[in-house]
From TrEMBL:
CDD domains in alphabetical order: NAT_SF (cd04301)
Gene3D superfamilies, alphabetized: 3.40.630.30
Protein species of origin: Spirodela intermedia
Protein name per the record: aralkylamine N-acetyltransferase
Residues of the N-acetyltransferase domain: 85-228
Swiss-Prot/TrEMBL GO biological process terms: melatonin biosynthetic process
EC number: 2.3.1.87
The keyword Transferase is assigned to this record: yes
Top-level division of the source organism's lineage: Eukaryota
Length: 228
């Protein structure tokens, strides 16, 4: 399965800005707006018209995404154990389990305290766990973190997906695609329609097949970093 490697060096060297602009049932007005206008104001450009998002009549009581958890796939192993791949958009992520997963995909290590802060301040953290259940042995289930992605957001118009990774031994099974699709659905349910990410050149086609557009209207992702 593909993954996005967002180490500092790779992001600075080659990174493509991608945007997912979803159409929604809204009031249509004969206005024109460029891409950045749409992000700032909530206008979504659709051909020659601009869709204006009507503000909710009352603010939602809970601004956080509703957590979800369900089984994506299930299969019986040769030894008789049943392996479930479980998607979750709620619950805590063990920083050291995540560090071990990052080691498997070759990402540079980051300070655990900063990783914990990033997770805490994310709008959504989605995970994939492999759970192996042995028949007739209650309480001996083995649970392993095999995938993760997170999103930051302004809680209104925009969200950006970060740190997408899948355990190499589980790649090639469509799990990365399922992880991103479920995140997109959860964001859309929160009425967030401008979804963006940064991807290495080698995985641009993967995200393009999920509906993302590279550099819409010529917009380029840019980074500032200290020059020592």
């Amino acid at each position: 399965m593909f993954q996005v490697s967002l180490s500092q060096e790779s992001v600075q060297a080659q990174s493509t800005y991608l945007c997912l602009d979803w159409k929604r049932a809204t009031k249509v007005c004969p206005l024109k707006a460029n891409f950045w206008d749409s992000i700032r104001s909530g206008f979504l450009k659709n051909n020659n018209t601009t869709e204006v998002i009507e503000p909710p009549s009352t603010p939602p009581e809970d601004e956080e995404p509703l957590p979800q958890e369900f089984v994506l796939t299930e299969r019986t192993q040769p030894d008789g154990t049943v392996e479930e791949i479980v998607f979750s958009s709620g619950g805590d992520v063990d920083v050291y389990d995540l560090q071990a997963l990052c080691d498997k995909v070759g990402w540079p290590r980051r300070p655990p305290s900063k990783v914990a802060t990033a997770l805490k301040n994310s709008y959504m953290v989605a995970t994939l766990h492999a759970i192996n259940r042995s028949s007739g042995s209650e309480g001996n289930d083995r649970k392993q973190l095999i995938g993760m992605a997170r999103a930051t957001s302004d809680h209104a118009f925009n969200a950006t997906i970060w740190d997408v990774l899948v355990d190499p031994s589980y790649q090639g099974r469509g799990l990365g695609k399922a992880l991103i699709e479920q995140m997109i659905r959860a964001l859309l349910q929160r009425d967030i329609g401008n979804i963006t990410l940064f991807a290495d050149d080698k995985v641009v086609d993967f995200y393009r097949n999920l509906g993302f557009e590279p550099d819409p209207q010529g917009i380029k992702g840019m980074f500032w970093y200290p020059r020592y």
